[in-house]
């Protein structure tokens, strides 16, 4: 009888332990570093064997601007390669400013890049940029990079870091490192579907040309820009907004 009671007690103890394990809360995904999140000790501007096998291609070799040129062939002295980064100089350090963009054009892709911004800084990365207009932002949607808190001018929710500039707002609880520290961003474009990621977390997804997109465009800075978001293929463009920014580990995978 005592033996039976012990067996029953052990059975209920095991059941309780199993229940506790099953009910354990899931880890917050925002705290998990993705393979694209900058990791201390990793060598910048290099691909692993696994990434090469997956089809990734480096867009920046860390040494020079091979594979890059300036928008519409403009003169420029604001971009330089320093310490393995593409560095956009501050306002006082350059007089000939222009966006830096890839020589090649891309249609469907996954783009990953590390970035950091100076205090009060403003920059961004555009995709499917064409050169039929005076400015790249009149064709290419922009992944915003900015000092959300310190930028001296008004910053609306659709103009914060990670947003699709003036169209779709990044969530307020996004996982972002402080000004002066490295972050990783990712843009995924497949057909008309676009995703914005920040430090391993998807911020949002939108669809070019959808009714929602058209409504947002009509209420944005792009309401009179007929070519905005219309190109099916174009250049990757890194914005020179007159403030200091750094980029590295820029890689792309065609989808």
Brief sketch in words of this structure:
The protein is of the alpha+beta class. Helices cover 14% and strands 29% of the residues.
Sheet bearing the most strands, described? 8 strands, antiparallel
* Fraction of residues in β-strands: 25-35%
Helicity range: 10-25%
- C-alpha Rg, in Å? 23 Å
N-to-C span? 68 Å
Mean pLDDT: 88
User: What's the CATH class label?
Assistant: Mainly Beta
User: Which outline best applies?
Assistant: globular
Tell me which CATH architecture applies here. Sandwich
Instruction: Kindly name the structural category.
Output: alpha+beta
Q: The CATH topology, please?
A: Jelly Rolls
| Number of helical segments with 4 or more residues | 3
Element-by-element helix/strand order: HHEEEEEEEEEEEHEE
Q: What ranges have pLDDT less than 50 throughout 5 or more consecutive residues? A: 1-37
**Beta strands, count:** 13
Kindly report the name of the CATH homologous superfamily: Exo-inulinase, domain 1
Tell me about this structure.
The strands form two sheets. Strands 1, 3, 4, 6, 9, 10, 11 and 13 form an eight-stranded antiparallel β-sheet that branches. A five-stranded antiparallel β-sheet has the order 2-5-12-7-8, with no helix packed on it. It is an alpha+beta fold. The protein has one domain: Exo-inulinase, domain 1 (Jelly Rolls). A hairpin with a 2-residue loop joins strand 10 and strand 11.
